[in-house]
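Crash report, auto-generated. Payload:
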Amino acid sequence: MFWERNIETLEKDQLQALQSERLVRTLNQAVQSPFYKKIFKEYQVDPTKVKHCGEIKNLPFTTKQDLRDNVPYGLLTLDQKEVIRLHCSSGTTGNPIVVFHTRHDIDSWSNLMARSLFATGVRDTDVFQNICGYGLFTGGLGFQYGCETLGCLSIPAGAGNTARQVKLMQDYGTTAIHAIPSYLNRLHDFITAKGIDVQKDLKIKRMIIGAEPHTEEQRIRIQEMFGVKAYNSYGLTEMNGPGVAFECEYQCGLHVWEDAYIVEIIDPKTFEPVPDGEIGELVMTTLDRQGVPIIRFRTRDLTRIIPGKCDCGRTHKRIDRITGRTDDMFIVKGCNVFPMQIEAVLLQIPEVANNYMIKLETINDNSEMIIEVEVLSNWFRGDIARLDSLKKQIEHGIRNEVLVKPIIRMVEAGSLPVSEGKAVRVQDLRNLN
Amino acid sequence: MAYQVSIFLENKIGHLRKITTLLAENQINIRTMNLTHTSNDWGVLNLIVDFPDKAHQVLNSQNFSVALREVIALEMDDHLGGLDNLLGKVEAAGVNFTNAYSRILKAGGEAFLILDSADTEQAREKLKKLALVPLDDEIVYGK
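Recovered output after restart:
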């Protein structure tokens, strides 16, 4: 049961031949951008001399900072009239990164998404409800185009408004859902509270979960609640968005589509490759993108290659669920958050400044971002009104910046650790592992 | 002019007690108190004590978030309708307040009401026009 049997089951040598051919094409495309022209010169890379995908380890890495520094057009390889869409990361701090897509890029991405959905069992007879933010966030349009390419009836429901989500499921007989795992808990609570039997009254057959770290235990609980399987999805804006790696029906790791990406796992300190099975940083290269090809992107995500063959027959390598990060970025409610974004907001609020702590907690099965702020004598006047308005100010400021509504927790002076140099301002207390 | 001592408090077991212990150890008598809270796991404790400046200093030195806040103390009677009678006058004066609490000085006799207003100065002027004059500090502080 394959979307593209010939590609999905390519033998290793054939897959490498395809990767080599596409890597050469990608390098020749990349050098058209101001950024890679400069980088290749600096590292003395001659893209015309690369012949085999194995040579990728001699190429320089691309970091998120490189992408930030080269906003808006530094990585664009073509005239702007050739590109038809852009996606960028959230926030305004330190330049959100941008990726431009040509029509070919969108088609290629949509096909990868369709292939991914097909691998989980979604067919053109399915009714697919995409419970996910649309707009600049890639999860909305990525799944949308994938559904349309596959041919199922798509419901671009967007995020939130649980009552309407459930009504759509009832009215149109939704059979497949994509959502972040923490939302599925809330959805299930709502459905149960309405007296609806999720297994008898609804027609959900499968779910796709992603964009938020979660444990196998959480996945199992979600599966038990809904009585159907929940498949993991992995993606990132730099590599299109969703559709980079996906679980198949066997749920034993996520297949990375190797005709579209070269996947490497490196030791983040030595930059040397680690053997299959060992945890390291995921590094990815696009192989089928024109607008903004990216070479050896350091995702900062920690994972491992799962050795051996998958029973599904697909030959593309599998990665394990993401076990952590090599930088301070964290993911909450499907949004990528860098602590410095939060700091930038809080520094503008004189009452707070450096007196804060970010805590990630699991509350009622939901991942929540809590900002603890000390109430200090130098501005405390004894009135609740001021505390309330401060709370709202912080809440709005952070929400605008990172798109996640935080919980603001006012704490007594002296409760937070004293900052000495680089204080640890993020505590991840979620039960993720 | 009476001052209330306001302290920011987390809603956790033992936190209120830390303050009462500290005040008792420092020979400060609490005349009346009130605890305003929100649903955010925190609140503000308001105290009328005999020595507000000292209380402020003691709490501040122990790193509590504390503020001295001017309030209006109005006399009333510990009789049926006593509070109602006083509030009738406050209403007539057109004074709005954000917090209120009271203390009986003598059962069946005098009592006072503490009013916390966003603009104390203005509230006092308005009350003055209706001959409502705040109680002497000595009475409020019990000296």
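Post-recovery validation: Residues 108 and 117 of chain B are 28 Å apart (CA to CA).
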